[in-house]
Amino acid sequence: MASNIVPGIWAKMMKEECKEVNASIQDLCDWLFHEPNPIPLNTAMAMLGMCKPIFRGPYVPCSKEMRERGVELLTPFMEDIPLKKGLVAMEDKEFTVINRC
Fold first, then answer.
1. What is this structure's pTM?
2. Which three-class secondary structure state does DSSP give residue 51?
């Protein structure tokens, strides 16, 4: 999932051994897997302005606390995130959850 957020960094690690880069991205990778896929990835992409903040139940965005943690972890990689429009933790009310069958 980190490859969706920082594809250039991920590609570099696939081409050569980059222990420092790998170490630097581990906390972000852990955050991206703190809940089942695709919840953290979709939350991060919404926080980065890369997609609309719309979830289809039963998936819901990460908690505000975890979104704030995500901002801390994403900030050092901002120059490596293509298509970003910014980075905000967002308020709960900014997300839409559709619960239709």
1. 0.92
2. coil
